[in-house]
C-alpha cells in the first residue's frame, strides 16, 4: 500500500523485497467453484455476483504425497503448511550429505533437443514434479523462431531450462548445472551455456555421421567429427546413454512400432534425471495415464520409457550419486503452477468478475499471445466471450465495439499487431472508452523473432499513435504477477475511461513459477456505474445528457447504447467538451487535447509510489521494468551479500510514472537501467528527469543473466570510488 496521500493501491503491483516476490501469506482460504449461468442480456441486467464469485477447483486428487494434489487443468497444485523462513535469492553455496544422497540448495537443468523431441513437455513435467515436491522454481522455455528449421540443425534446437531450489528464487538461472542433449545439434547449441564441471547427459544413439554433419561437427575436409571421442567435453562430467535404443527395447513387449517407440525417448531422459535428482515418479505416471488415456499404446510407451530411464539410474553404477533439492520454505497456502499467459488470462477473468461485467476478447492469433485466446475460450461459464478475428484490425474493432456495449473489452497481440491496431486504439482514446490492450513483446521489427523475448515496444506503447494520444502503460514483472497486472490495467481502464496498454514479453508469457492462490477478499472492487439518467440541464431548463460531462477523475460518463434518452455521438471527429457535439474550433480542440492528457496524468495520484530496495547509503541505483526484475533482484542480492553497496527500484507503471521517481533518481551518483532493447526507458528517464542514466542493453532474444548485471553494478560502484 502506498503512503497516505498517494492513492490507494488495490493490490501489490510493486515488488517489495526478495522475500516478498510471491504473495504474502493470508488466512487459509477454501477455494471452490461458484459457476454463474450467464444469460444473453445487457450487462446492467446481470444478476449480482455472489461472494465468493471466483475459485480455482483443486480436484482429481491423487495420492502423490501428503498435501500434494493434481488439479483438473493437468497442472500441479500443492498446499504448503510451512511458515515463513529465511529467504535467499537465487543461488547460495551449500552442499551436504544425508541418507547417502547429496543435498543441494538449487539445481539448474536444461533439456535440449530437436524441435520434435518433446523438450518443452519434458521440461514442463520436471518442473511440475519439482513443484509438487515443494521446491521454488523458475523456468525459461527457449524454442526456435525458425518455425520449420531442418531436423537435426542447430537452428532447430528447442530447449527448456528450469531452476529449482530450497529457497526463494527469481530467475531460471545463469549457467545450467546439467545439460540433457538429445542430439549433436543440442550439444552444439547449448554446451557453451553449461557451467564448468557441469554434467552432460547425452543420447549417444543420435551421434551418427549424418546428425554430426547437420550439427556442424566436421573437420576441414567436411567429414564428421564426433565430440564424444575428442576433447570437446573435457572438464565436464559426461553420461553417455543409448536412450533411443533402450526406449525401443522396453516398448517391444507393448507392440509399439520402433519408429513410434522412438518418440518416447524424451520420457526416458525425464526418468533418468528424475532418479538422479530424487524426483517422485507417481505424479508423472498419473499425468501420462490422464494425458494419453485415449491411446493406450502411447500411454504405455511413455510410461515404460519413463520408468526405464528411472531404473537405468537406479541400477547403473556409471550414473553415480543421487542428489536432492529439499522443499523450499514458502508461505502457507494453496499453490498452483502458472505461466504468465495463464496468470494474465485468469487475471482478466477476475477483473471482469470484480467489475461485474462480461469479458469480451477480440484477438487474432499471434505468437506469443495466442495462449491467452486459447485459455479464455475455455471459460464461457464466467461470461467470457472470445472472438478469433481474421486480422488484427478486426480484433481491436471487436474490442472497441464491446467497450461501447458495456463489456470489459480486451484485445491481445504482439508488436506487429500493435502497430496495426494503432488507429483503432486512437479512436478508443478519442471517444474515451475503456479497453485493455495486451502486448506480449517479441524480438525485432516486422515478423522478427516470433518466439524470442524482447522488450522493445515501450516506445510504440508510449508514442505510437497519431495526434496527442497519451495512454496509461502498465508492465508486469513476473509470470505469477501477470494476474495482478491484468486487474490493475482493467481498474485504470474502467475508472478513467481510457484504453490501457499492458506490456509483457515472451519470457514472462511462457515462463512459469509457483503461485499462491489469492485470498478472494483481497481482490479489489473495480466496478464503475453506468450512466442511466440525464446529467445536465439546458438553457431552457430541460434535462439533457452530456456525454463529455466529466467527473472528479476527468472521466466521461459511460452510457450504454439503448439506454432511454442517452443518445450520443461516437466517432473520431473532435467533440465539444460537455455536449459531445462535433466542434472544430481551435480553442475547443486545444481544450480537449489538454483535458485528455490531464486525465492520464491524474492517474499518477492513484498508483503506488516507487519503492527502493537495498542499501540506504548506496551510490548506485539499478532501475528496471518488465521481466528484468528477476535478474536485477538476483544480481543486487548477490552483490549485497559480498558487501557491495547497491540499491534497486522497479517500475510497473510506465505512463504515468510514479510521482516520487524523480526525487529517488536524484539521490544517486550512478543510475543504470538494464533493458531488453536499445535503452528506451533510459531515454525516457533522461528526458523527463534530466538524470544521467546509463542504458545496459541486451538484444539477443534472451533474458538477462544475473551475472551480466552484477558486472555492470561492480563497474558503476567502482566509478563512484566505492569498493566492489
Structural class: alpha/beta
| Poorly predicted residue ranges | 1-12, 17-93
Individual helix count: 20
Oligomer: single chain
| Biggest pleated sheet | 8 strands, mixed
User: What helical percentage do the residues reach?
Assistant: 25-40%
Instruction: Give the CATH level 1 class of the largest domain.
Output: Alpha Beta
* Content of β-strand: 15-25%
Please tell me the CATH architecture of the largest domain by its name. 3-Layer(aba) Sandwich
Name the CATH homologous superfamily of the largest domain. Pyruvate-ferredoxin oxidoreductase, PFOR, domain III
Output mean pLDDT: 87
User: Which topology of the largest domain does CATH recognise?
Assistant: Pyruvate-ferredoxin Oxidoreductase, domain 3
Radius of gyration: 27 Å
Amino acid at each position: 500500500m502506498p503512503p497516505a496521500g498517494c492513492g490507494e493501491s488495490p493490490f501489490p503491483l510493486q515488488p517489495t523485497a526478495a522475500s516478498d516476490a510471491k504473495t504474502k501469506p493470508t488466512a487459509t482460504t477454501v477455494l471452490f467453484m461458484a459457476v454463474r449461468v450467464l444469460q444473453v442480456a445487457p450487462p446492467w441486467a446481470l444478476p449480482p455476483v455472489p461472494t465468493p464469485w471466483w475459485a480455482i477447483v483443486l480436484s482429481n486428487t491423487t495420492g502423490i504425497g501428503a498435501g500434494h494434489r493434481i488439479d483438473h487443468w493437468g497442472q500441479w497444485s500443492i498446499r504448503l503448511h510451512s511458515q515463513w523462513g529465511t529467504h535467499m535469492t537465487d543461488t547460495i553455496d551449500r552442499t551436504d550429505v544425508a541418507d547417502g544422497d547429496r543435498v543441494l540448495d538449487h539445481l539448474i537443468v536444461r533439456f535440449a533437443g530437436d524441435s520434435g523431441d518433446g523438450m518443452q513437455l519434458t521440461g514442463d513435467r520436471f518442473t511440475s514434479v519439482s513443484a509438487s515436491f515443494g521446491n521454488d522454481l523458475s523456468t525459461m522455455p527457449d524454442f526456435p523462431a525458425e518455425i520449420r528449421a531442418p531436423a537435426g540443425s542447430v537452428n532447430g534446437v528447442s530447449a527448456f531450462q528450469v531452476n529449482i531450489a530450497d529457497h526463494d528464487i527469481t530467475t531460471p538461472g545463469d549457467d545450467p548445472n546439467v545439460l540433457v542433449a538429445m542430439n549433436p545439434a543440442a550439444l552444439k547449441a547449448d554446451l557453451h551455456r553449461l557451467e564448468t564441471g557441469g554434467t552432460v547427459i547425452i543420447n549417444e544413439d543420435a551421434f551418427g555421421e549424418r546428425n554430426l554433419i547437420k550439427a556442424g561437427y566436421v573437420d576441414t575436409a567436411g567429414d564428421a567429427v564426433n565430440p564424444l571421442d575428442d576433447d570437446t567435453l573435457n572438464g565436464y562430467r559426461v553420461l553417455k546413454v543409448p536412450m533411443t535404443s533402450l526406449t525401443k527395447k522396453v516398448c517391444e513387449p507393448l507392440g509399439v512400432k520402433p519408429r513410434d517407440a522412438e518418440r518416447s525417448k524424451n520420457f526416458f531422459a525425464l526418468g533418468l534425471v528424475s532418479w538422479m535428482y530424487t524426483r517422485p515418479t507417481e505424479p508423472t505416471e498419473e499425468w501420462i495415464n490422464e494425458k494419453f488415456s485415449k491411446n493406450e499404446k502411447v500411454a504405455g510407451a511413455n510410461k515404460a520409457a519413463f520408468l526405464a530411464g528411472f531404473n537405468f539410474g537406479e541400477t547403473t553404477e556409471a550414473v553415480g550419486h543421487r542428489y536432492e533439492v529439499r522443499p523450499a520454505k514458502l508461505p502457507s497456502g494453496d499453490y498452483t503452477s502458472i505461466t504468465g499467459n495463464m496468470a494474465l488470462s485468469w487475471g482478466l477473468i477476475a477483473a471482469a468478475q470484480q467489475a461485474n461485467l462480461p469479458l469480451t476478447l477480440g484477438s487474432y492469433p499471434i505468437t506469443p499471445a495466442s495462449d491467452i485466446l486459447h485459455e479464455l475460450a475455455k471459460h464461457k461459464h464466467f461470461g467470457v466471450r472470445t472472438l478469433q478475428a481474421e486480422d488484427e484490425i478486426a480484433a481491436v474493432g471487436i474490442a472497441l465495439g464491446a467497450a461501447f456495449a458495456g463489456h470489459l473489452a480486451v484485445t491481445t497481440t504482439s508488436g506487429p499487431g500493435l502497430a496495426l491496431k494503432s488507429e483503432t486504439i486512437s479512436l478508443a482514446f478519442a471517444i474515451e472508452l475503456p479497453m485493455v490492450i495486451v502486448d506480449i513483446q517479441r524480438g525485432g521489427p516486422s515478423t522478427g523473432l516470433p518466439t524470442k523475448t524482447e522488450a522493445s515496444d515501450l516506445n510504440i506503447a508510449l508514442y505510437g499513435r497519431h495526434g496527442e494520444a497519451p495512454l496509461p502503460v502498465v508492465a508486469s514483472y513476473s509470470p505469477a504477477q501477470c494476474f495482478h497486472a491484468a486487474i490493475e490495467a482493467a481498474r485504470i481502464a474502467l475508472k478513467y475511461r481510457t484504453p490501457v496498454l499492458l506490456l509483457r514479453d515472451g519470457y514472462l508469457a511462457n515462463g512459469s513459477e509457483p503461485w499462491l492462490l489469492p485470498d478472494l477478499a483481497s481482490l479489489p472492487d473495480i466496478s464503475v456505474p453506468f450512466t442511466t439518467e440525464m446529467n445536465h440541464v439546458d438553457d431552457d431548463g430541460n434535462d439533457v445528457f452530456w456525454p463529455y460531462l466529466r467527473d472528479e477523475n476527468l472521466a466521461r460518463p459511460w452510457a450504454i447504447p439503448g439506454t432511454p434518452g442517452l443518445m450520443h455521438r461516437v466517432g473520431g471527429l473532435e467533440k465539444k467538451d460537455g455536449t459531445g457535439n462535433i466542434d472544430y474550433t481551435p480553442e475547443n480542440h486545444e481544450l480537449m487535447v489538454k483535458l485528455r492528457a490531464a486525465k492520464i496524468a491524474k492517474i499518477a495520484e492513484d498508483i503506488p509510489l516507487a519503492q527502493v530496495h537495498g542499501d540506504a547509503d548506496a551510490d548506485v541505483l539499478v532501475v528496471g521494468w518488465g521481466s528484468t526484475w528477476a535478474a536485477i533482484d538476483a544480481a543486487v542480492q548477490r552483490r549485497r551479500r559480498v558487501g557491495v553497496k547497491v540499491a534497486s527500484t522497479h517500475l510497473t507503471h510506465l505512463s504515468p510514472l510514479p510521482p516520487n521517481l524523480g526525487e529517488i533518481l536524484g539521490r544517486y551518483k550512478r543510475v543504470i537501467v538494464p533493458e531488453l532493447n536499445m535503452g528506451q526507458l533510459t531515454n525516457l528517464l533522461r528526458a523527463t528527469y534530466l538524470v544521467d542514466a546509463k542504458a545496459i542493453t541486451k538484444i539477443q532474444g534472451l533474458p538477462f543473466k544475473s551475472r551480466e548485471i552484477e558486472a555492470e553494478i561492480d563497474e558503476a560502484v567502482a566509478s563512484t570510488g566505492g569498493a566492489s
